[in-house]
Every structure is written in structure tokens, then in C-alpha cells.
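Comment on the following before class.
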Amino acid sequence: MLDSKHIKHFEKLVGTENMYSDKAHLIAYSYDATREKYEPDAVLFPRTEEDISEVLKYCNEHSIVIVPRGAGSGFTGGALPSTGGIVLALEKHMNKILEIDMENMVAIVQPGVINMDLQKAVEAVGLFYPPDPASQEYSTIGGNVAENAGGMRAAKYGITKDFVMALRAVLPNGEVIRSGKRTIKDVAGYNITGILIASEGTLAVTSEITLKLIPKPKLVKTAMGVFNSVNSAMEAVYKTMASGVVPVAMEFLDNLTIRAVEQTFNKGLPIEAGAILVTDVDGNLENDLDFQLAQIEKVFRENGCSEFKIAKDEAESADLWFARRNASPALSVYGSKKLNEDVTVPRSVLPELLEKFYAIAEKYDINIPCFGHTGDGNVHTNVMVDGSDPEQVKIAYKAIEEVFQATIDLGGTLSGEHGIGIAKAPYMKMAFSEAELTLFQTIKQAFDPNNILNPKKMGLE
């Protein structure tokens, strides 16, 4: 509970219309996509970078916890006020596209800008911002930076970090720093931008983001391959990526996911298939796209593809993508509790990874449907159980621990795009040595010696 003197100070600082401690606001900002709930003591809506600076300075002096928040769409609890304190909500006022620089192909935005709004704005002038997380219609660029979000186009274009050129950020003591430049090359000093990306709001609060843009490709084509087994599909993935063709996206659904989508939406999917792969290619010449698709079909066929379909138009393309885009909600047919992980491995070990996951499912007699961005080795692994059964929930967490261990054993990582937050914090010791964890803690201490910014996240104290 915040002392009344603190509440009065914040009301004076940002205005009563931007400072709330009523129950409705505390509940509204108590949860994210994890469905876990932790009520804050107050919610603040800063109007400017100066507001952020003054809020942080005051909180640092009075040991008040601050939790930065974008849209609250994260899957690991990174924006949850798990230790109370103040939620610093950036979506209300700090949501402007400040500049689209056509000559240098750069966009400068505030952290509360919605990803899709930025995409539409730059595409209207012939430019392109590729990172497209599944939450693109409501997640913010600031949140994308905090979690280093990816998306379906990552196979060709990369993820958020590959497009962040510079940041303005406010340190816990209220000082404003700028990291990076609006230049293609910059090797002066430490890469502070790189440290802040994926730091989940534990080091500083981002107030401005400079993003690289590229020319928008004129043409896009979609295709789908049907495979008798997941193993064959995974072989096709890494062999396609090594064939000289770089598809925009290479997404997969396993049999359990296919059946769930079909049961939920009745789209005529091949429910006997072991897996399907959906892929996009893009470019500026029709012949180039046709060549890419021919090469992909060749590799698919050589690796057990029984059917290869190319979309004739945008409507058919949307139809092919429907199953992938609706895979996650469809999985509720397998249980009310879903532990959704986004492990990532080198593409060449995808077949072995999936085999290990299905062995874990068999061991515990549960369903583990999988889908995801296999073009970059990122698999969304979903342990599904009855959430009302405590024993089933215990089994689910045992299975998840084995999923993480299998991933790490194959040279993979705990998270490809969702981050660590509080959900994966207990598993950090599986993935990092004591020396590495100590270094993380040292970096946190250097930025935030009083530990007011988003404490207890990422396995940090």
C-alpha cells in the first residue's frame, strides 16, 4: 500500500487523470497473457519522457518498485507487478510515431506505438518493418523491444533486435541516456542498446526507439506442404533453409495441432497428416518467386511431402495461413491448462527435439501439441492438462522441466521470443552457469542499485 504522501506527489506530478489507485485500475493492470494476477499499488500514465524521469527519480529515492508495461500481452509475466509497487503504463500517452525518415529508411517511435500501426504507417510510404509477433495487432513496440519479440517473418528478416538502431531510456535514478545512433555503423563504446533489448524492463524504461526500415517487397506468395510425419517435415525445414532459398516464413503444425484446429474451425485440414508446413516467399519479380517455390517444393518432395499447394490469390493465402494463426486458441480442446513455451534450437536438431517432446508426452500420458516458427528453430511447445486437477498440473510442470532440459541438451535456449519474466525464472539455473548468472546480477546492480525496476524477473533478485 502506497503512503498517501506518495499518491499526492504522483497526482501533482502527472495529474489526477493519470494517477489511479482505485480497485478497477488495480485489477485491470494486475494480469497479462499468463493469466496470473498480482495487483499493483497504483497505476501511472506518464505523458512524456520528463514524467518518466521524475517518477523514477522519486521512486528511487523512496524505494518504490516500478514495473514498466506496454500492452500486457506477454506470456511470461514480465509486466506483472509480482512484488507490488507502481505499474508505469506507457500505452495511453507515449504512443506516437515521431518520424518516418524516407531518405535514411528509419522510423522513430515512442514505446506505446502498436506494432501493426507502425507496419501500416511505413508500408503506406513503400517501406517495411518486418518483425510481426502474433500479438502485432495490440502489442507495443516498447514491449517488443523489452522481450526481443520475433514473429513469422523471422526466418528471413530476423527479430526485433535486428531492427533497433538506437534507444532513449530513463535510468532508475531519473537520468536519460541515449544508446546507438541513426547510422548504419556505430562501434563507439559498449553496445548498451543490445543490453537493453530483451532486458524486460529490469534495467531502464525505454522512452524512444529508432528502428531500421527496408524497402517493401512488391510480391508475396504462399504455399503449404503436407507430410506423413513430423520427422519428415523437420528434415524438410532445415534442408530448405540450406538450399539457397530463404523463405520469409516457415511455419509448422503437428498432427495434434492440425486436429485441434479442424475440430474447432472445420477448415478441411488433412487430419491424418503427421505435420504441415506453411511458407511464404517474397520479392519484386514473379519469376523469382516461382523459382523459390519450385526449389522449396523440390526439397519438400525429397523429404516426404505428399501434397504441395500454392495459393492462387490473397484469399487462398489467408486460408492456408488460417490454421497456423489460430493454432494456439484451438488447443483448448486438449485441456483447460496450457503451459506454452517457446524453446528454440539449431534447425538441424529439430527432428530430434520433437521426438524427445513426444516421448515426454507418452511418459506422462498427456498431450503436447507443437507448432511454430521452425524456419528459425523456434517451437511453441504446449503442455495441455486439466487445470482443475492438481495432480495433472503437477505432472505438467514436471513435463515442462524435461522439455527445457531436452532443449538445453540439444544446444537450445529457454526462450526464442517470449522472454523469461517470472514464469521461466526458476529454470535459469538449468541454462546458465553460476558465473553467467552472477554477471547478469552485476549488470542489474550497475543499472539499478536500489532494485526498484521490475524486481524478481529473469531470475534476478
User: Anything to note?
Assistant: The CA atoms of residues 17 and 79 lie 22 Å apart. The mean pLDDT is 96. The first helix runs from residue 4 to 14. The chain is about 35% helix and 20% strand.
